[in-house]
Design brief:
about 290 residues; 8 strands; globular; single chain; Peroxisomal Thiolase, Chain A, domain 1; two-stranded antiparallel sheet
């Protein structure tokens, strides 16, 4: 592991409720707009939570053909869009890498294709096993996002997913950093994607009493550091960055947003969802 090998961020891509492109997202974020709103695309009348950060009006058409859209889940659509826009932002043209075996992707998701899981379970129970789609497993599996991005970009280097709940995307970026420092790649797409705002996902987090129930003011419900907080707010979208060795980035005249200086990971071995009251794990990671 060469800790002296400098790793930089050269591209950004985002698809989220605040915007389907980086400039849209940034403008909305700076203006203080909220992407959280009442849920309208499925019935929530019997649920205690009726709002989320749902991604409205997203069209995967510019990045995926009709057939590929049908054989991939929404979280993959988000990831392919964000990853493709990150490469464009970095000035890297898909399919034109001279050493594609030195480029890869680590794309996280906490749940993966829950839309597909919900739909195929419904089919199984209502219509029998013969009606379950042959695309169920490839649509559901978490590493589908990284895999489809590889097909689109031609990247043949390290390619996999990290799945560690809320920390998954941070782990993806940290893992990509370690791969680059280890000399296993020169350029990596890293980040995460989630599309869990459906009846099953919402009902599960409601059952765990993990969500805010501020249905009367959804745009003010997410307040993690407030003494009156009452839970988190579900959202969906994707955020992906391009990480490169500084040597490669400088050689091709890339714009550099930032340098990644380090990464830490730990576990406080305390509880499945609640952090240790003395922040043992968080302190160790830092």
């Amino acid at each position: 592991m060469d800790r002296a090998r400098r790793i930089v961020v050269t591209g950004l891509g985002v698809v989220c409720p605040l915007g389907h492109r980086l400039d849209e997202y940034w403008e909305a974020a700076v203006a203080g707009r909220s992407g959280v709103r009442p849920i309208e695309h499925f019935d929530v009348s019997d649920l205690p939570v009726r709002f989320a950060g749902h991604l409205h009006g997203f069209d995967p058409g510019p990045w995926l053909g009709v057939k590929q859209q049908r054989t991939t889940d929404r979280f993959v659509h988000f990831a392919v869009a964000a990853g493709s826009m990150a490469l464009e932002d970095a000035g890297i043209e898909a399919g034109q890498e001279t050493r594609p075996e030195r480029c890869g992707a680590v794309i996280a998701s906490g749940i993966g294709g829950i839309d597909e899981m919900y739909e195929q379970t419904r089919r199984l129970l209502e219509r029998g096993p013969r009606r379950v789609s042959p695309f169920f497993v490839p649509k559901m599996m978490v590493n589908a996002a990284a895999g489809v991005l590889a097909q689109r970009t031609g990247f043949r280097g390290p390619n996999f997913a990290t799945t560690s709940a809320c920390a998954a995307s941070s782990h993806a970026i940290g893992t990509a950093l370690l791969l680059l420092r280890a000399g296993m790649a020169d350029c990596m797409l890293a980040g995460g994607s989630e599309a869990a705002v459906n009846r099953l996902g919402l009902a599960a987090f409601c059952a765990a009493r993990a969500l805010s129930t501020r249905n009367d003011e959804p745009e003010r419900a997410s307040r993690p550091f407030d003494r009156d907080r009452d839970g988190f707010v579900m959202g969906e979208g994707a955020g992906i960055v391009v990480l490169e060795t500084a040597e490669r980035a400088l050689a091709r005249g890339a714009r550099i947003y930032a340098e990644v200086l380090g990464f830490g990971a730990s576990d406080d071995a305390h509880h499945m969802t609640a952090p240790h009251p003395e922040a043992v794990g968080a302190t160790q990671a830092m």
